[in-house]
Protein backbone atom coordinates (compact mmCIF):
# COMPACT_ATOMS: atom_id res chain seq x y z
CA UNK A 1 0.00 0.00 0.00
CA UNK A 2 1.40 3.35 -1.02
CA UNK A 3 0.68 6.71 0.54
CA UNK A 4 1.03 8.70 3.73
CA UNK A 5 -0.40 8.13 7.20
CA UNK A 6 -0.93 10.07 10.40
CA UNK A 7 1.66 9.43 13.09
CA UNK A 8 1.68 10.87 16.62
CA UNK A 9 5.28 11.94 17.19
CA UNK A 10 6.72 12.91 20.56
CA UNK A 11 8.80 15.93 19.53
CA UNK A 12 9.93 16.77 23.05
CA UNK A 13 9.10 15.74 26.60
CA UNK A 14 5.42 16.45 27.17
CA UNK A 15 4.74 17.36 23.54
CA UNK A 16 3.13 15.26 20.79
CA UNK A 17 2.37 16.37 17.24
CA UNK A 18 0.42 14.64 14.47
CA UNK A 19 2.74 14.31 11.47
CA UNK A 20 2.56 12.65 8.08
CA UNK A 21 4.84 9.68 7.43
CA UNK A 22 4.97 7.10 4.62
CA UNK A 23 2.86 3.98 5.14
CA UNK A 24 5.34 1.17 5.93
CA UNK A 25 5.76 -1.65 3.44
CA UNK A 26 5.49 -5.19 4.86
CA UNK A 27 8.41 -7.58 4.35
CA UNK A 28 7.90 -11.14 3.12
CA UNK A 29 7.16 -12.47 6.64
CA UNK A 30 5.16 -9.46 7.76
CA UNK A 31 1.63 -8.11 7.48
CA UNK A 32 0.48 -4.53 7.23
CA UNK A 33 -2.10 -3.78 9.92
CA UNK A 34 -4.50 -0.85 9.98
CA UNK A 35 -4.37 0.10 13.64
CA UNK A 36 -7.78 0.75 15.18
CA UNK A 37 -7.14 1.04 18.93
CA UNK A 38 -4.06 1.66 21.05
CA UNK A 39 -4.02 1.53 24.83
CA UNK A 40 -2.08 4.09 26.83
CA UNK A 41 0.32 2.23 29.10
CA UNK A 42 2.05 3.46 32.23
CA UNK A 43 5.36 3.19 30.39
CA UNK A 44 4.04 5.55 27.70
CA UNK A 45 3.19 8.06 30.41
CA UNK A 46 6.62 7.68 32.03
CA UNK A 47 8.38 8.36 28.72
CA UNK A 48 6.00 11.24 28.00
CA UNK A 49 6.54 12.84 31.42
CA UNK A 50 10.23 12.24 32.02
CA UNK A 51 11.73 10.97 28.79
CA UNK A 52 13.23 7.86 30.37
CA UNK A 53 12.62 4.62 32.22
CA UNK A 54 15.83 3.42 33.80
CA UNK A 55 18.47 3.07 31.09
CA UNK A 56 15.94 3.52 28.28
CA UNK A 57 16.10 7.18 27.26
CA UNK A 58 13.88 8.80 24.63
CA UNK A 59 15.62 10.84 21.98
CA UNK A 60 12.89 12.74 20.08
CA UNK A 61 11.38 12.44 17.58
CA UNK A 62 9.86 9.28 19.01
CA UNK A 63 6.57 7.38 18.65
CA UNK A 64 4.91 5.94 21.76
CA UNK A 65 2.33 3.16 22.10
CA UNK A 66 2.63 -0.64 22.17
CA UNK A 67 -0.86 -1.99 23.01
CA UNK A 68 -2.62 -2.35 19.67
CA UNK A 69 -5.33 -4.10 17.74
CA UNK A 70 -6.40 -3.71 14.13
CA UNK A 71 -7.15 -5.28 10.76
CA UNK A 72 -4.77 -6.83 8.25
CA UNK A 73 -4.78 -4.89 4.97
CA UNK A 74 -1.78 -6.47 3.21
CA UNK A 75 0.25 -9.66 3.63
CA UNK A 76 3.84 -10.52 2.75
CA UNK A 77 4.42 -13.27 0.20
CA UNK A 78 5.53 -15.85 2.81
CA UNK A 79 2.52 -15.36 5.09
CA UNK A 80 -0.04 -18.18 4.95
CA UNK A 81 -1.95 -18.10 8.26
CA UNK A 82 -3.33 -14.58 7.87
CA UNK A 83 -5.29 -12.87 5.11
CA UNK A 84 -6.58 -9.41 4.33
CA UNK A 85 -9.52 -8.62 6.58
CA UNK A 86 -8.36 -10.65 9.57
CA UNK A 87 -8.61 -8.77 12.86
CA UNK A 88 -5.54 -9.20 15.04
CA UNK A 89 -3.87 -8.40 18.35
CA UNK A 90 -0.23 -7.43 17.97
CA UNK A 91 2.36 -8.82 20.39
CA UNK A 92 4.86 -5.95 20.42
CA UNK A 93 8.20 -7.67 21.04
CA UNK A 94 10.25 -9.31 18.27
CA UNK A 95 12.99 -11.50 19.70
CA UNK A 96 16.13 -12.98 18.14
CA UNK A 97 14.98 -16.61 18.27
CA UNK A 98 18.54 -17.90 18.72
CA UNK A 99 19.69 -17.05 22.25
CA UNK A 100 19.45 -19.41 25.24
CA UNK A 101 16.31 -17.64 26.45
CA UNK A 102 14.50 -17.86 23.14
CA UNK A 103 15.47 -21.50 22.69
CA UNK A 104 14.25 -22.39 26.18
CA UNK A 105 10.88 -20.68 25.62
CA UNK A 106 11.66 -17.73 27.91
CA UNK A 107 11.81 -15.34 25.00
CA UNK A 108 10.69 -12.38 27.11
CA UNK A 109 14.23 -12.39 28.53
CA UNK A 110 15.89 -12.16 25.10
CA UNK A 111 18.61 -9.48 25.33
CA UNK A 112 18.09 -8.46 21.71
CA UNK A 113 14.32 -7.96 21.74
CA UNK A 114 12.92 -5.20 19.53
CA UNK A 115 9.87 -3.88 21.38
CA UNK A 116 7.40 -1.23 20.25
CA UNK A 117 7.89 2.13 22.02
CA UNK A 118 11.03 1.06 23.87
CA UNK A 119 13.79 3.45 22.78
CA UNK A 120 15.08 3.57 20.13
CA UNK A 121 12.21 1.54 18.57
CA UNK A 122 9.15 3.56 17.52
CA UNK A 123 5.74 2.49 18.77
CA UNK A 124 2.28 2.23 17.24
CA UNK A 125 0.58 5.59 17.73
CA UNK A 126 0.09 5.60 13.96
CA UNK A 127 -2.48 4.53 11.39
CA UNK A 128 -0.58 1.57 9.91
CA UNK A 129 2.10 -0.80 11.21
CA UNK A 130 4.11 -3.49 9.41
CA UNK A 131 4.72 -6.31 11.88
CA UNK A 132 5.96 -9.89 11.89
CA UNK A 133 3.02 -12.12 11.01
CA UNK A 134 3.84 -14.64 13.72
CA UNK A 135 3.30 -11.89 16.31
CA UNK A 136 -0.15 -10.97 14.97
CA UNK A 137 -2.79 -13.16 16.62
CA UNK A 138 -6.20 -13.62 14.97
CA UNK A 139 -9.20 -12.57 17.04
CA UNK A 140 -12.39 -14.69 17.26
CA UNK A 141 -15.56 -13.10 15.93
CA UNK A 142 -16.76 -12.17 19.41
CA UNK A 143 -13.52 -10.38 20.37
CA UNK A 144 -13.22 -6.78 19.16
CA UNK A 145 -10.07 -4.99 18.05
CA UNK A 146 -10.48 -2.82 21.15
CA UNK A 147 -10.09 -5.96 23.24
CA UNK A 148 -7.30 -7.01 20.90
CA UNK A 149 -5.37 -3.89 21.89
CA UNK A 150 -5.83 -4.74 25.57
CA UNK A 151 -4.56 -8.30 25.22
CA UNK A 152 -1.07 -6.89 25.83
CA UNK A 153 -1.65 -5.72 29.43
CA UNK A 154 -3.81 -8.79 30.07
CA UNK A 155 -0.82 -10.92 29.07
CA UNK A 156 1.16 -9.29 31.87
CA UNK A 157 -1.61 -10.17 34.32
CA UNK A 158 -1.73 -13.77 33.16
CA UNK A 159 2.04 -14.09 33.35
CA UNK A 160 1.88 -12.87 36.95
CA UNK A 161 -0.90 -15.32 37.81
CA UNK A 162 1.00 -18.12 36.10
CA UNK A 163 4.18 -17.25 37.97
CA UNK A 164 2.17 -17.58 41.18
CA UNK A 165 0.81 -20.96 40.08
CA UNK A 166 -2.54 -19.67 41.31
CA UNK A 167 -5.61 -21.85 41.35
CA UNK A 168 -8.75 -23.05 43.15
CA UNK A 169 -8.78 -23.14 46.93
CA UNK A 170 -6.47 -20.17 47.36
CA UNK A 171 -6.99 -16.67 48.65
CA UNK A 172 -5.20 -13.97 46.70
CA UNK A 173 -4.43 -10.28 47.13
CA UNK A 174 -3.52 -7.81 44.41
CA UNK A 175 -1.75 -4.69 45.65
CA UNK A 176 -2.60 -1.79 43.33
CA UNK A 177 -5.70 -1.49 41.15
CA UNK A 178 -4.37 0.34 38.14
CA UNK A 179 -4.60 -1.37 34.77
CA UNK A 180 -2.07 -4.11 35.60
CA UNK A 181 -3.61 -4.70 39.01
CA UNK A 182 -7.04 -5.12 37.43
CA UNK A 183 -5.90 -7.54 34.73
CA UNK A 184 -3.92 -9.50 37.34
CA UNK A 185 -7.07 -9.79 39.43
CA UNK A 186 -9.08 -11.00 36.43
CA UNK A 187 -6.34 -13.46 35.45
CA UNK A 188 -6.36 -14.91 38.97
CA UNK A 189 -10.11 -15.36 38.78
CA UNK A 190 -9.81 -16.94 35.33
CA UNK A 191 -7.35 -19.43 36.81
CA UNK A 192 -9.96 -20.43 39.37
CA UNK A 193 -9.02 -18.41 42.45
CA UNK A 194 -12.41 -17.94 44.15
CA UNK A 195 -11.63 -14.79 46.15
CA UNK A 196 -9.27 -12.02 45.14
CA UNK A 197 -8.89 -8.98 47.38
CA UNK A 198 -7.54 -5.70 46.01
CA UNK A 199 -5.85 -2.76 47.75
CA UNK A 200 -5.14 0.77 46.55
CA UNK A 201 -5.24 4.36 47.78
CA UNK A 202 -7.63 5.67 45.10
CA UNK A 203 -11.36 5.07 45.49
CA UNK A 204 -12.14 5.24 41.74
CA UNK A 205 -9.71 2.41 41.06
CA UNK A 206 -11.09 0.33 43.89
CA UNK A 207 -14.61 0.85 42.56
CA UNK A 208 -13.43 -0.44 39.19
CA UNK A 209 -11.92 -3.51 40.88
CA UNK A 210 -15.26 -4.23 42.55
CA UNK A 211 -17.07 -3.87 39.22
CA UNK A 212 -14.73 -6.41 37.67
CA UNK A 213 -15.07 -9.04 40.36
CA UNK A 214 -12.91 -8.29 43.39
CA UNK A 215 -14.25 -10.15 46.44
CA UNK A 216 -13.42 -7.12 48.59
CA UNK A 217 -11.34 -3.97 48.35
CA UNK A 218 -9.23 -2.08 50.86
CA UNK A 219 -8.27 1.59 50.72
CA UNK A 220 -4.86 1.36 52.34
CA UNK A 221 -4.77 5.13 52.87
CA UNK A 222 -7.73 4.80 55.22
CA UNK A 223 -7.14 1.47 56.97
CA UNK A 224 -4.29 -0.90 57.67
CA UNK A 225 -4.08 -3.15 54.59
CA UNK A 226 -2.38 -5.99 56.45
CA UNK A 227 -4.98 -6.08 59.20
CA UNK A 228 -7.76 -5.88 56.63
CA UNK A 229 -6.37 -8.85 54.67
CA UNK A 230 -5.93 -10.88 57.84
CA UNK A 231 -9.57 -10.17 58.67
CA UNK A 232 -10.73 -11.10 55.17
CA UNK A 233 -8.77 -14.38 55.30
CA UNK A 234 -9.97 -15.33 58.81
CA UNK A 235 -6.49 -14.73 60.20
CA UNK A 236 -4.70 -17.08 57.83
CA UNK A 237 -3.17 -14.60 55.42
CA UNK A 238 -3.03 -14.78 51.61
CA UNK A 239 -1.74 -17.75 49.62
CA UNK A 240 -0.85 -15.52 46.66
CA UNK A 241 0.04 -11.84 46.56
CA UNK A 242 0.67 -9.94 43.32
CA UNK A 243 2.30 -6.56 43.93
CA UNK A 244 1.62 -4.19 41.02
CA UNK A 245 1.88 -0.74 42.59
CA UNK A 246 5.64 -0.45 42.89
CA UNK A 247 5.21 1.31 46.23
CA UNK A 248 7.91 0.30 48.74
CA UNK A 249 5.39 0.10 51.58
CA UNK A 250 3.24 -2.26 49.50
CA UNK A 251 6.17 -4.64 49.05
CA UNK A 252 6.57 -4.79 52.81
CA UNK A 253 2.84 -5.29 53.27
CA UNK A 254 2.99 -8.22 50.86
CA UNK A 255 5.38 -10.06 53.18
CA UNK A 256 3.37 -9.18 56.27
CA UNK A 257 0.01 -10.33 54.88
CA UNK A 258 1.37 -13.53 53.34
CA UNK A 259 0.41 -16.90 54.71
CA UNK A 260 3.28 -19.25 55.54
CA UNK A 261 4.48 -20.89 52.33
CA UNK A 262 2.83 -18.21 50.16
CA UNK A 263 4.02 -16.94 46.79
CA UNK A 264 4.61 -13.23 46.21
CA UNK A 265 4.91 -12.01 42.63
CA UNK A 266 6.47 -8.59 42.10
CA UNK A 267 5.27 -6.77 38.99
CA UNK A 268 5.37 -3.04 39.75
CA UNK A 269 8.53 -0.96 39.44
CA UNK A 270 9.37 1.38 42.32
CA UNK A 271 10.43 4.93 41.47
CA UNK A 272 13.92 4.35 42.87
CA UNK A 273 14.25 0.77 41.67
CA UNK A 274 14.85 -0.42 45.23
CA UNK A 275 12.69 -1.68 48.11
CA UNK A 276 13.43 -2.90 51.62
CA UNK A 277 11.79 -6.13 52.76
CA UNK A 278 11.45 -7.73 56.23
CA UNK A 279 13.59 -10.72 55.29
CA UNK A 280 13.52 -12.32 58.73
CA UNK A 281 9.74 -12.57 58.45
CA UNK A 282 10.01 -13.87 54.88
CA UNK A 283 12.45 -16.56 56.00
CA UNK A 284 10.27 -17.57 58.92
CA UNK A 285 7.32 -17.94 56.57
CA UNK A 286 9.38 -19.68 53.87
CA UNK A 287 7.94 -17.42 51.21
CA UNK A 288 8.59 -17.74 47.50
CA UNK A 289 9.41 -14.56 45.62
CA UNK A 290 8.86 -14.39 41.86
CA UNK A 291 9.05 -11.52 39.44
CA UNK A 292 7.54 -10.57 36.09
CA UNK A 293 9.13 -9.06 33.02
CA UNK A 294 6.48 -8.66 30.32
CA UNK A 295 5.18 -12.15 29.37
CA UNK A 296 5.82 -15.20 27.21
CA UNK A 297 3.57 -17.59 25.28
CA UNK A 298 0.46 -15.90 26.71
CA UNK A 299 -1.46 -14.29 23.84
CA UNK A 300 -3.50 -17.37 22.78
CA UNK A 301 -4.46 -18.05 26.41
CA UNK A 302 -5.42 -14.42 27.01
CA UNK A 303 -7.49 -14.20 23.81
CA UNK A 304 -9.34 -17.40 24.71
CA UNK A 305 -10.08 -16.06 28.20
CA UNK A 306 -11.70 -12.98 26.67
CA UNK A 307 -13.57 -14.97 24.02
CA UNK A 308 -14.99 -17.35 26.64
CA UNK A 309 -16.21 -14.51 28.84
CA UNK A 310 -13.84 -15.39 31.67
CA UNK A 311 -12.30 -11.90 31.44
CA UNK A 312 -14.22 -8.64 30.92
CA UNK A 313 -11.43 -6.76 29.20
CA UNK A 314 -13.56 -3.85 27.99
CA UNK A 315 -14.40 -3.17 31.62
CA UNK A 316 -10.98 -1.76 32.46
CA UNK A 317 -11.35 1.17 30.04
CA UNK A 318 -12.44 4.42 31.65
CA UNK A 319 -11.60 6.95 28.92
CA UNK A 320 -11.59 7.03 25.11
CA UNK A 321 -9.79 9.69 23.08
CA UNK A 322 -9.68 10.34 19.35
CA UNK A 323 -6.32 10.14 17.58
CA UNK A 324 -6.27 13.83 16.72
CA UNK A 325 -6.76 14.58 20.44
CA UNK A 326 -3.76 12.53 21.55
CA UNK A 327 -1.93 15.46 23.16
CA UNK A 328 -4.91 16.00 25.45
CA UNK A 329 -5.21 12.26 26.02
CA UNK A 330 -1.67 12.03 27.34
CA UNK A 331 -1.97 15.21 29.42
CA UNK A 332 -5.21 14.09 31.05
CA UNK A 333 -3.89 10.58 31.69
CA UNK A 334 -0.88 12.08 33.49
CA UNK A 335 -2.78 14.70 35.48
CA UNK A 336 -5.91 12.75 36.47
CA UNK A 337 -4.60 9.39 37.64
CA UNK A 338 -7.14 9.32 40.44
CA UNK A 339 -9.98 9.01 37.91
CA UNK A 340 -8.45 7.73 34.69
CA UNK A 341 -7.68 4.05 35.18
CA UNK A 342 -7.16 3.16 31.50
CA UNK A 343 -7.15 5.40 28.45
CA UNK A 344 -7.54 4.11 24.91
CA UNK A 345 -6.80 6.02 21.71
CA UNK A 346 -9.28 5.39 18.89
CA UNK A 347 -7.30 5.69 15.67
CA UNK A 348 -9.04 7.47 12.79
CA UNK A 349 -11.38 5.19 10.88
CA UNK A 350 -11.77 2.63 13.65
In brief, what are we looking at here?
The chain has 350 residues and is of the alpha/beta class. The protein is built from 10 helices and 19 strands. The chain has helices at 42-50, 100-103, 145-163, 179-190, 203-211, 225-232, 248-257, 279-285, 299-307, 326-335, and strands at 4-12, 15-22, 30-39, 52-53, 56-57, 67-75, 87-90, 93-94, 114-115, 128-132, 136-138, 171-175, 195-200, 216-219, 238-243, 258-266, 288-291, 319-322, 343-346.
Task: Outline the structure in words.
With 350 residues, this protein is of the alpha/beta class. It has 2 domains: 4-138 and 318-346, Medium-chain alcohol dehydrogenases, catalytic domain (Quinone Oxidoreductase, Chain A, domain 1), CATH 3.90.180.10; 157-291, Rossmann fold (3-Layer(aba) Sandwich). Helix content is 28%, strand content 28%. It has helices at 42-50, 100-103, 145-163, 179-190, 203-211, 225-232, 248-257, 279-285, 299-307, 326-335, and strands at 4-12, 15-22, 30-39, 52-53, 56-57, 67-75, 87-90, 93-94, 114-115, 128-132, 136-138, 171-175, 195-200, 216-219, 238-243, 258-266, 288-291, 319-322, 343-346. The strands form 5 sheets. Strands 3, 6, 7, 10, 11, 18 and 19 form a 7-stranded mixed beta sheet that branches. The protein has a 6-stranded parallel beta sheet with strand order 14-13-12-15-16-17, with helices on both faces. Strands 1-2 form a two-stranded antiparallel ribbon. The protein starts with a strand and ends with a strand.
